[in-house]
Design brief:
3% helix, mainly beta, four-stranded antiparallel beta sheet
């Protein structure tokens, strides 16, 4: 079993930066991809960024060039560095893990492992 705990959310002005962290405790041999989804009020959930065990990454078009996903494999922490944040980035961000690869991660209805979420608010 894997437990995912996010942190690092907050309120920033447009153009600012935040770094989200997701601590993965426990163990899951089958988990291949770790990534981030987000959901804003009244909007569909959206895949943001994913990193799999082969080093493949995938990003939503809306965040390419601004967000970077990385992982500390020793500490088992997944990061999402978010730069040049915009009001449309306002959402609850969720960390997730699943056996699928990076190319299929955003299509998941319900990843195997899911965190409790951290709120990101960007004001103009």
């Amino acid at each position: 079993q894997l437990q995912l705990t996010e942190s690092g959310g907050g309120s920033v002005q447009a153009g600012g930066s935040l770094r989200l962290s997701c601590v993965a405790s426990g163990y899951s041999a089958s988990t291949n991809s770790m990534g981030w989804f987000r959901q804003a009020p009244g909007k569909l959930r959206e895949g943001v960024a994913v990193l799999d065990n082969d080093g493949n990454t995938n990003y939503a078009d809306s965040v390419k060039g601004r967000f970077t996903i990385s992982k500390d494999n020793v500490k088992n922490i997944l990061y999402l560095q978010m730069n040049n944040l915009q009001p449309e980035d306002t959402a609850t961000y969720y960390c997730a893990g699943d056996p699928v690869g990076a190319s299929a991660f955003f299509k998941l209805r319900r990843p195997n492992y899911w965190g409790q979420g951290t709120q990101v608010t960007v004001s103009s």
